[in-house]
Structure formats: C-alpha cells, structure tokens
Design goal:
Layout: E1 18-21, E2 31-32, E3 36-37, H1 45-57, H2 66-70, E4 72-73, E5 76-80, E6 83-90, E7 104-114, E8 129-142, E9 151-155, H3 157-160, E10 175-176, E11 184-191, E12 198-212, E13 219-232
Parallel strand pairs: 1-13
Antiparallel strand pairs: 2-3, 4-6, 5-6, 6-7, 7-11, 8-9, 8-10, 8-12, 12-13
Length: about 250
C-alpha cells in the first residue's frame, strides 16, 4: 500500500514559460483498470480479461472491477512520449463490504515518471509536470437505470494536498507531480449512501496537467488526462442465482 506521506525537497523553476493549451476529452487517455490503454471496444480482450479475473473471485459480481477483486488498482498512461502518469487507488476496507448503505472510503496517489532517463538520474534531467486542477466524479450504475453522483471533488490540488512542503510552479501551473520530488495524495474520501439497486460506480479522475517539453526548457503543454476506475457495489442480501459477470465498459469519449 502506498506511503502515507511524501518526502519533498526544494525546487527552483525558471521564469519564462510558453504554454500551449490542448484540452481534450476522455479520449485523450483511457487506461483499462490499470492494465493498459483502454480499447475502443469494451468487449475487447482487455475487457474480457477483467471479466475473467472477476469471474474467478466472485461469480455473483455484476460490475466487473479489478479494484473490487484486489482492493487496489494502479492504472498508468503516457501523457506524452515516455512520460508516464500513474494513479494508485486503494481502500483499507474489505471491498466486498462496499454495500449500498455502508460507509465507503478510498484513497489515492498521483505521480508522474519520466522514463526517458533512469529512475536514479538527477532530477534536473527529468521533465517537470505540474497539476493545476483535479476533478474526481463518481457516477453510479443501477438496475433501474437511475444515475446518482454520490462523490464530486473539483479543486486546486495545492489547497488539499497532504504534503506540508508541496512544491509548486512559480508560473502558476500548480503542484509538482514529477517523481521523486513531487506527487499528490488524498486519503479516506467518502462515498455516501446509494440507491438499493446500485450495481457499481465509475470513478472518473480528470487531471489538468502541464508537462515540460524537454528538461529545463520551461516550455509547457497543458492538457486534461482522464483515468477511470470501476467499483462494484453490493446489496446486503445474497442472490441464490449465479448471473454471468459482464465487463464494465470504459467511457469512449
């Protein structure tokens, strides 16, 4: 399970910035449950793999979810060439106790890794990435088709970060999230009571990030990156039937 705190060192950032804004929708980045980039077809091999893993652990699970099976999920995606964003989401509860009317809490960490250079390379050889806004939305799937939004976070990460020594951009680009000096963490985020027929929910992490085009260049490109995490929700009563688990589709755009 990820560490509860970050260790942060001081960082100086140059003044000149050329910002190219390229905001994109959910088609920008679409990882599938932390396995790989999501396919356009939700019934593809990757989706089937998630469903197969689910079937081996709980034949009654309708909302296929690696998070529910494992208690955590770790999707990654390349923001640009070999600049990898990683999202770690976990819970300290039993995921099969995520009942519709129970207290449900999750924690998460966001970090970026510049894979153009070795992990042990000096930090000034790595591209800086800053996050200026984070939006996390949970939307439910129900048997009746009714959609609820039981959790919404939309904020400047600098206002809610757990790190008392968080490093920020001098140009207003937000919180540094390039590892190992930067990152973002929130703990024990609560999802409230849901409708009794809720089968699952989709967490949509929308991150506005600005990444350096080259180490030390002070030229940045800004875009919105989406990560999706499906989570199964359970009723207190256990059905005697054994329905066939189906893959949970990832939004396509």
């Amino acid at each position: 399970m990820p560490s509860k705190r970050f260790t942060v060192r001081a960082l100086a950032v140059g003044a000149a910035v050329a910002t190219v804004v390229a905001l994109s929708g959910c088609s920008t980045v679409m990882p599938l449950f932390g396995l790989q980039a999501a396919p356009t077809d939700p019934n593809s091999a990757a989706g089937a793999k998630a469903s197969e893993a689910d079937a081996t652990t709980d034949n009654s699970l309708q909302f296929a979810s690696v998070f529910t099976d494992m208690g955590s999920v770790h999707p990654t995606t390349d923001i640009t060439d070999q600049l990898e964003l990683k999202l770690d989401v976990w819970t300290e509860q039993k995921t099969h106790d995520w009942f519709y009317d129970a207290d449900k809490r999750f924690s998460f960490v966001i970090g970026v890794y510049d894979n153009r250079v070795p992990a042990e390379a000096p930090f000034d050889q790595k591209r800086r990435v800053y996050m200026s806004n984070i939006t996390v939305t949970a939307k439910t799937s129900t048997a009746s088709g009714t959609v609820e939004t039981p959790y919404v976070l939309n904020t400047d990460p600098l206002k809610v970060t757990l790190d008392p020594e968080a490093l920020r951009s001098d140009q207003g680009l937000g919180l540094l999230i390039t590892s190992p000096k930067g990152g973002f963490q929130l703990e024990s985020q609560q999802i409230g009571v849901l409708a009794p027929d809720t089968q699952g929910l989709m967490l949509d992490f929308a991150l506005q990030v600005s990444f350096e085009t080259a180490p030390g260049s002070n030229a940045y490109t800004t875009q919105v990156v989406h990560q999706y995490v499906p989570v199964a929700i359970f009723a207190h009563t256990t059905s005697t039937s054994t329905p066939t688990p189906t893959p949970t589709p990832i939004p396509i755009g």
